[in-house]
Amino acid sequence: MRIPIIHRDSTSEADGPSCHGGPQADIAGLPLLAIVGCPNVGKSVLFNVLTGAYVTVSNYPGTTVEVSRGKGRLDGYEVGVVDTPGMYRLLPITEEERVARQILLHERPAAVIHVTDAKNLERMLPMTLQLIEAGVPIILDVNFMDEAERLGLQVDVVGLERALGVPVVATTLARGKGTTQLKETLVAHVRGHCTDCPSPASRPAVQYHPAIEAALEDIETRLGGAYRLSKRMVALLLLQNDDEVVSLVREQDGRSADEILQIAEATRAKFGQPISCVVAHRQHEAAKRILRSVLIAPEQRLSGFAERLSEVMMNPLTGIPLLLLALFLLYQFVGVLGAQTLVGFLEDDVFGTYINPWVNATLATFVPWPVIRDLIGGDYGVITLGVRYAVAIILPIVGTFFIAFSIIEDSGYLPRLAMLIDRVFKRIGLNGRAVIPMTLGFGCDTMATIVTRTLETRRERIISTLLLALAIPCSAQLGVLMGLLGSQPNLFVLWAMVVAAVFLLVGFLAACVMPGERPTFYMEVPPLRVPTLGNVLVKTYTRMEWYFREVFPLFIIASVLIWLGRLTGLFDLAVSSLVPLMRWMGLPDQAAVAFLFGFFRRDYGAAGLYDLRSTMTGTQLLIAATTMTLFVPCIAQFSVTLKERGWKTALAIEAFIFPFAFLVGGLLGRLLTALGVIL
Hints:
This protein is α/β, with parallel strands linked by helices.
C-alpha cells in the first residue's frame, strides 16, 4: 500500500497532473525533456506546465523512488517530459540523486532544463557548471525572479547567458511568467537548431588543481567507450570514486579500465582530503566568479516578514510555542471538525438513521439465508461495518487530514520543523532529517518506512523504522483517535504526552543499544510561501483517490475475513484469547474485538474502539487509545519493513511491539489508579 505523499517541491505548485491513476503517458520514441534541480525550486510546476494531464507516476526500475513522466506538445512537436528527483550535484549521495543521475546517464535527453532559485544562485550554479562540463544540452531556468526582486536582488540574465554559454531564461513559474520564452527555447532545442543561443565555444571550463587536470587529460585519452556524458565528466566522477561510473567504465573499456582506475587512485593519493571536496570547492569558486559580474545584491539583503517568521520558527524559544499552536489548529480541524462533526453526521444521521436500517430491512425481506445476511448486514457486514467504517468514520478524518497536511507541506514548514527538533532527535540516534519520514508517517507509515532510505546510516534507518512502527499513528488512525478523545481535550493531551514519552524513551534506548556514529545533518530550507487553494485541493483529491483505490477495498476484505472467521469459529476463538489482555489493562471484554480488527489495520481497530466510546470511562479511553497507537503495524507496513530491513529486523520489531504495547497499557492503568486519577 502506498500513499502519494507529494513532497518533491514544497512550493506553490500544482501537482495535479502527476497523480496516480490519470491517463498513461507513453513517451517512448519522443524527444525527451529532463527537468533537474534541487528540491523546492519549482520543478514540478514546470513539469505540469509542459505536460498537462498525460502523466504517469511510477518507481524508477530497481528503486522505490518515484519519477513522473508526461507527454506534452511544443509548437506542434510532441515531446516526452521527465521530472527527476531533487539533486544537488552529479556525484550522488542519496537514492534520489542516484536516480536523477541515471536518467542523464542512460536516457539521452534532447534538452536538460536546470531549474534554479534566483535567490540562491551561488549555491545552485555549481550544478549548472557540472551539467555544462557533462556536455548535456542544458537550458538554465532562473526561477522565483519575483521573490529575488522583492529581496533587492537583480540578475543580469543576458550577462549570465554570455558567461555560461548556454541559454538562460528568467521565470516566475508559479505565476506563468517567462514560460512562453522557455517553451520557445525548448522548441529550438527539439528542432535541433537555436540561432539565438550562445556558442558552445564560449562555455567556461572549471579549472581544477593541476594534478587533477593532468589526470583528467590522461584518463580522457584512454576512455574508448560510448558514454552519454562527456569523457571529461566521466573522468571527473572516476577521480571522485563514483561506484556506478567505475562499473560503467569497467563495462565499456574492458582491459583499459584497470589502468584508468590506477590513475584515479594515484591522483586521490596526492590529496590529504577527499578529492570530491577539492572538486566541489573549485566549482563553487568558479560559480562565485561568474556571479560577481551578473548578480547585483544590496549590501544588506532585505528581510521581509516571511524571512523573520522563518527565523522565529527555527528558534527553540519561539518555535516550540508555534509548533504547539500548529498542533492545536490541526486538532481543531481534524479532531473536532473531521472526527466529531463530520463523522457524527455521517455515522449517526446517514448510516445510523438511514443506510444500515434500510440494508438490514431489505436483507430480512428478500434474503432468506442468514449466512448471506450476516455477510452484508448485521453487526459485522460488508456494508454495515466495512463500508460504514470506511465512509462514515475514516473518510472524513483522512479528508480533513489530507487538506491540513497539504497546507503544511506547501508552506515550507516541515524543513523548519526539522531544524527545530534536530537537537532532540540526536538524543535518539537520529537527526533533523528524520522529521520527514516521521511526519510522512502521520499520512501513511508504509510510505514513510520507504522514505527512511534517505537517511544516511543503517543505524538511523533501523531506529526510524522501529519508531514508525511503534509510535507514529497514520492519518486514518490518528484522526479516529482524535475523535475518540476529542470530547475530552485533557485525554488527548495525556495521550499525546504518553506516546511522545514512549517515542523518546524507546528511541533513546535503541540509540544506546545500537552501535554507530553520531548522525550529521544538512537540509535545504525553502522559503516560506502561502499555499495556493488550487494546489491544496488537487493534492487532497489525489490522496483521496488513493484512499478509495487502495484503502477502501481493504475494509471490505477485512469484513469478509471476519465473516469467514465467525463461520469457522476462529473469530470467537481469537477474541477470547485477547480477553485476558483486555482485563489486564482494565478494559471491557468487548475491546478485544477492536484489537482483533487492529491486526488487519490499526485504523480499523481504532474505528472499533470508536464504536465502544460510550461504554468506556475516560481512563479506559486513554488506555485503549494509547495501546492501539503502540499496537502492531498494519500488514502493508510490515511487508515493506520486511523488504527494506530484512526478515530478522522486521520480526524483531514485531516481537518487541506486540507485548510492549499491552505492557504500556497495563502499567498506565495501574499508574493512574495508584495516583488516584479519575478521568
